[in-house]
Amino acid sequence: MGETFAGGNHITGYKELSKDKQIIEMPIPSRVAIPLSQHTGIICEPMVKESQLVRVGTKIGQGQGLISSSVHASISGKVTKITDYNHPVLGVCKAVIIDSDGQDELEPGVGVALARNIKLFSKEQLLEIIKNAGIVGLGGAAFPTQVKLNPPKPVEFLIINGAECEPYLSCDFRIMLERSQDILKGVSVVQQILNVRKVLIGVEDDKQEAIKALRNKIAELKLDFAVVGLKTKYPQGAEKQLIKALLDREVPPGKLPFDVGVVVLNVGTVLAVGEAVFLNKPLYERVVTVTGKILKNPANLKVRLGTRFSELINFCGGIKGQCEKIIMGGPMMGIAQCTDDVPVIKGTSGILLLSKSQTAGFAEQPCIRCGRCVDICPMRMLPYLLSQYGQTGHYQKADGLNVKDCMECGACVYICPAKRRILEHIRLLKTVLK
Amino acid sequence: MTQEDTKIIVESSPHLRSEESIPRIMWTVALCLIPSGVMSMLVFGPATVWIIISAVLGAVITELISCRLRKKPLTLMDGSAVLTGILLAYNLPPQSPLWMAFLGGSVAIFLGKVLFGGLGFNIFNPALIGRVFLMASFPQLMTRWPAPFGIDAATAPTPLAVFKDGFANTNILTQTEIINYSYSDLFLGLRGGCIGEACILALLLGAAYLVYKQYITLEVPLSFIGTVGIFSWIFSGSGFFKGDFLIHVLSGGLILGAFYMATDYVTGPITKKGKLVFGVGCGLITCLIRLWGGYPEGVSYAILLMNVVTPLIDRFTVPKRFGEVR
């Protein structure tokens, strides 16, 4: 039995749809739309003009201020427009549209293997490389990585998050299996930046092959990282729950992991860090799980950022039957899209298609106080009560119930036998009580 | 894919739901009560099935009418009215008149549930409201106990009633001799008592399935039964720590109440800690009534009284906030 936290619940994973599919590189799209905001923080300032020629890896948007991240061209060709375009998180955002010249020409120096001895680099130099490469957390929150790796006080532990607890998704599993060495090289870089001795890699125990692959590689490279099996349970990959499971430390309300001496990075993020440092490669592509029971050929695709969802879906053979939901991310925390004409961004871990039978509107019934939501709430809140207060407009009553602790994992909604829209009510309370 | 001919739903996460539902839970509990009902037909005669049907009909028809009157969607299929009917019937003596069972089912739903606003809003266990109403209204009919396998209308007091008298009169006999039943009689339900309470084996079978399905947890039943056991061991004998706790655990409606009624979601506490408090409270009140109160049996009143305390228990058993340092 793997390490875990109190609460959470087992959710049918549906990972078998895509988990055995090797990562395939998707053909270069003829056009990409690269949003200037793909991260938590201030939107980038465009660095290119319309009709300017760019190459793969050309920086096209400069990060602004302390918490921001640059964006780069993902194909070579001509900037046709800088305009508002559909965005999977923000709805609409200013984006750079690039038409491909079909050459896939790299910016000079990009993608060239560098025999860098990182020991000779200072922390600041490495952080600068990461910042220039536009790396953000690839687990979904897209927080700029150079900021996360520069905590205001020293930390004790580096935790690498390979839990991938969201149902359906398998992109992290595939990279752990296929790119274990590159991930570990990235981990070494991060370890040096943070100057920590202890590194833990947490992987849910339904991914034994990944655990084995990482352990073998660690032994081979004579590294001192521990791979820890975690109980397969949602939301095991949530930052605070992962820290609780691995170190039995609880991040206090409103605080961040470094407050308990920890930095947590997703496996995809450390892979990108490794590629930035050893390949001089900015973040212009990522692995995306394209899946769903109604998709003909679910797959794990290596995709250039800015490629539209519709192209990924077509590449996977299209849809059989009727699609009623297009979700960016997993089914628990993913965002439903209103069109398939949205670009893949840095935080796109998956594209999930759900059919009518899977999304059929559930009639909300009164709470029968079964207590399941309280038992499983990973933040130890009272979802049933918040839901009632939110629904009936008793906002002030909810004031002392720490509604801001909710990370919106949705475990309570999943388990509720009355099919209550608990999280919608909680989101309402969060907005009202702001 | 073109979007023109396809309707796409946009709503907030999560987009996945478990398969559990209120009807599934209610019907499963009802199903788990069947073995005990079958035993009652074997022990008290096939007539008990008509009592069960009458009580269920009373509950269902009342639910139907009140849904119509309140212009609310019909909630019959969620199974809770049927379950209430069954539980009420299981709390009635085997020779109850059918009209009384029907009336009880009706009162259970109307007074116990509808008046409070329907499923989820009631503060008392509806089936027990029905039973208490009948106890107050028809005391003789509610305490007429036929002997097991009795051919005529021979009556025999329940073990707890015998115990209550016998304990007062004699100290010579052992306690099982006083009540004239062996432990295995009690376990198999070969004794006088309510329709669905007697056969412990049948009740435990159903309860085991509910625990396996995680529809009930063991906090309430174990703390309830444990408290009754310990309390009766200490106080029910002819001196401290000489009580025959097995008699108290195996007799009366304890097992039925502890596994099927005190575990009711709506009227019990929400947290695990709260459930333990609730169970201990139920156990204490049950023993107080059984040993020193006016009735031989106290499970119903114990659960109803603890239902009242539930909001208070919930208030004092809020889980500790994640990350909070004490």
Summarize the topology.
The complex is a heterodimer of chains A (434) and B (326).
Chain A: E1 23-25, E2 31-35, E3 45-46, E4 53-54, E5 59-62, E6 71-72, E7 77-87, E8 91-100, H1 123-132, H2 145-148, E9 157-162, H3 171-178, H4 180-194, E10 198-204, H5 208-220, E11 225-230, H6 239-247, E12 262-266, H7 267-279, E13 285-291, E14 299-304, H8 309-315, E15 323-328, E16 335-337, E17 350-355, H9 356-359, H10 372-376, H11 383-392, H12 411-415, H13 422-432
Parallel strand pairs in A: 1-14, 9-10, 9-12, 10-11, 13-17
Antiparallel strand pairs in A: 2-8, 3-5, 4-7, 5-6, 7-8, 13-14, 15-16, 15-17
Helix pairs in contact in A: 1-4, 3-5, 4-7, 11-13
Chain B: H1 22-32, H2 34-44, H3 48-69, H4 80-90, H5 98-112, H6 126-137, H7 159-169, H8 175-179, H9 183-188, H10 200-212, H11 219-235, H12 245-250, H13 254-261, H14 272-292, H15 299-316
Helix pairs in contact in B: 1-4, 1-10, 2-10, 3-4, 3-5, 4-5, 4-6, 5-6, 6-15, 10-13, 11-13, 11-14, 14-15
Descriptive account of the structure:
The complex is a heterodimer of chains A (434) and B (326). Chain A has helices at 123-132, 145-148, 171-178, 180-194, 208-220, 239-247, 267-279, 309-315, 356-359, 372-376, 383-392, 411-415, 422-432; strands at 23-25, 31-35, 45-46, 53-54, 59-62, 71-72, 77-87, 91-100, 157-162, 198-204, 225-230, 262-266, 285-291, 299-304, 323-328, 335-337, 350-355. Chain A is α/β, with parallel strands linked by helices and 434 residues long. Chain A has 3 domains: 1-25 and 109-360, NADH-ubiquinone oxidoreductase 51kDa subunit (Rossmann fold), CATH 3.40.50; 26-100, RNA polymerase II/Efflux pump adaptor protein, barrel-sandwich hybrid domain (OB fold (Dihydrolipoamide Acetyltransferase, E2P)); 372-432, no CATH class. In chain A, helix 1 (123-132) crosses helix 4. The model of chain A has no long low-confidence stretch (mean pLDDT 94). Chain B contains 15 helices and no strands. The N and C termini of chain B lie far apart (56 Å). Classes of the chains: A alpha/beta (434), B mainly alpha (326). Chains A and B meet through helix 8, strand 15, strand 16, helix 10 and helix 12 of A and helix 1 of B.
